[in-house]
Amino acid sequence: MPDRHASSARPSSKGQNGVLPGMQEPSASVAVLLPLPLSHPYDYKVPAGMDVQPGDIVLVPLGKREVTGVVWDPPAVEAEAHSTDEKPEMVQERLRPILRRCAVPPMTPILRRFVEWIADYTMAPQGAVLRMALSVPDALQAPRPVLGVRLAEGDPSSGFKWTDARKRVISTAADGIAWSVADLALASGVGSSVVRGLVKAGVLEQVEVSSPRRFDLPDHKLDPPEFWGDQADAVARLKALVESNAFSVHLLDGVTGSGKTEVYLEAVAECLAAGRQALVLLPEIALSGQWLERFRHRFGVAPAQWHSDLTPGQRRTTWRAVAEGEARVVVGARSALFLPYGELGLIVVDEEHESAFKQEDGVCYHARDMAVVRARLGEFPIVLASATPSLETLTNVKNARYGCLKLHRRHGGAELPSIELLDLRRDKPTRIDGLGQSWLAPSLRAAIEETLAAGQQAMLFLNRRGYAPLTLCRTCGHRLRCPHCTAWLVEHRGRNVPSQDSEGLSGDLQCHHCGYRCRRPECCTECGDSDSFAACGPGVERIAEEAAVLFPDARRGVMASDTLTGPNAAAKMVQAVQDGEINLLIGTQVVAKGHHFPDLTLVGVVDADLGLFGGDLRASERSYQLLHQVAGRAGRAEQPGKVVLQTADPDHPVMQALQSGDRDSFFEMESQMRQRSYLPPFGRLAALIISSPVEADADGFCRDLAKRAPGYKGIEILGPAPAPMALLRGRHRRRFLLKTRRDLSPQTVIHEWIAGIRLPSRLRLQIDIDPYSFF
């Protein structure tokens, strides 16, 4: 970022010891890193009488604005990088002063090193990473004082009118304790206006009182559940790791329903007993009502939560409570990793294999991997929990970089469900009068009817939102696509979709990439034929419609991310299933993650092949993990479970591994395939995505960049080529894919490759180290 954006501030050239404690001289300066896409801090003058230290959060001028930043201690840089003909005194005189220091705990040295480490690894500007750690600007302001009222000394003013209500208030306040207005009014049986009137009359006086606790302390001494066998061994080992307070990484590898949550909560209890904070990362925090209930049952209170559905006030309260050490346990999504913990002593990454931990916008990072770095910097243990661990984690276990704790059996004696492969080539779905093509094979229909008749619950799973993934014209074959993305518009019928067209009519078509919405046109824009559009393929809403026809007496519910508006709606849906109000649940992948439904005995997967094919190197691994997790919802209590996978390719290795239950052989086969191709985790990948609103500009820049491509042994550069999502949010996208040996650093290669390149203003260059998606 050019210096002109900082006005009189200048890029810092201080060394490691450039910031001294107790600086008082007017000429002293410090480096301040700003939460902006800047690769380095800027120097600011320290006013006389102000004492700033590394980590202090300060308010500084930037152009005509005032922004918050963090006093930094940057590494030394070469002098010629900031050469100047001006004398140091003249440069110092031009510096703008720090305005004030924010009344908030300073950013710890560990968090500052964490910001630097992520910036170096992801090749993102340090300021962009800092912005994730300073994500709640309002929390940097000192909280308003909490005022209470108590009985004032002296007599009421002349003309004061005594009433029964006022007498009751004065009698209640005679104990001399400071009350809140609401509490005093409630205790006296009067309205708040009576109390405020006594304050105005001088009978009561306002006083500042200590703020109430924002989060109750979890009680780690509450009786834990009883553990047996593998569980007891895992609990003992995890407690010992936490007690040692040394860095380690352990995989908690347990089958679905084996009690992994209860086991790692004992590690959290040990961390609390040692006086340290704990963090639990979940892939879908907004849909984790059952997890929160388990935590409350173990510790007596709810933990602090951190996710996108919090209100601004909740985010401000939680951020500050974490910084001040009041929030002892935080459960959150990936961004919770950047909260300002002062005493962090344990991280748990639940469902560590989930791709939701990968952030692909802005700073591209994987929260699981960065959590390991955070634990290493803080020198404390981290636990990765999963029933279907990622190949990266399994490889680290195999190479003895990570430890492993295995839970082989389900809790309480429950057995794993049986898995049946339903060959759609032989057991073909038929047509339904008035509805058209069915997507449920006769055998699956019969299994659902039998399950419901027995008073048990069934679930239908299809990992596709909406009613239909494609809408086309029967006359000419024209397909409705998003004007801003290389994507078909998805039809929705389960809710009213506001339109963005000029007539403002209600719509039913949506792009799941950019959010564009419109109504389905009455006439085809290509051939002009009217009423010719047909919905092709099923979404979860289409399956729900079919279920309503086939099983009219079933108590149905649909559970998908776009039908559940926040955690409360998700919790109500889960509770309805647990209470038996719903006996046929139809859902997408949100039903697969950790939910415990004791009476659910049948799971039917509508399209088990969905996601198996395409250009994703992890397609087979992800499909196995998702289907295994879905299957794990069945038979978690006394009744045995059954899973029916509808597939057109029952001989596929994923299907065979699921049916046989031989997870390890499947991952060994997947590992050998990756190793032969030098693909992760046996090689390194990095993606360079160039985008522009003008396609020719993107192509021209890519041609010039390709000419500069480095040629080293052990490095392969693929591209440039249009990204699979060649148009996204109105920007044309081109991709280079850098493939290197495991022992080579793609960051070093990219640094050399793009050094000195000036990016035109309309173009964007995004670097994704260790990409997970290839859209």
Summarize the model shown:
By secondary structure, the protein is α/β, with parallel strands linked by helices.
Which terms summarize this structure?
775 residues; alpha/beta; GIY-YIG endonuclease; Rossmann fold; 7-stranded parallel beta sheet; 6-stranded antiparallel beta sheet; 20 helices; 34 strands; 28% helix; disordered N terminus
CATH superfamily of the largest domain: P-loop containing nucleotide triphosphate hydrolases
Low-confidence stretches: 1-8, 13-27, 77-87, 496-507
Main CATH class of the largest domain: Alpha Beta
SS class? alpha/beta
- Main sheet attributes: strand count, strand direction, barrel closure: 7 strands, parallel
Number of strands: 34
Q: How many helical elements? A: 20
Tell me, briefly, the overall form: globular
**Corresponding CATH architecture of the largest domain:** 3-Layer(aba) Sandwich
The third-level CATH topology of the largest domain is Rossmann fold
Radius of gyration: 30 Å
Q: What is the count of structural domains? A: 5
Q: How much helical structure, as a percent, in the residues?
A: 25-40%
Mean pLDDT: 87
CA(first)-CA(last) distance? 29 Å
Percentage beta strand: 15-25%
Strand order of the biggest β-sheet? 11-12-10-13-16-9-17
Describe it.
The structure is a single chain. With 775 residues, the chain is an alpha/beta fold. Helices cover 28% and strands 22% of the residues. It has 20 helices and 34 strands. Helix 15 links the parallel strand 27 and strand 28.
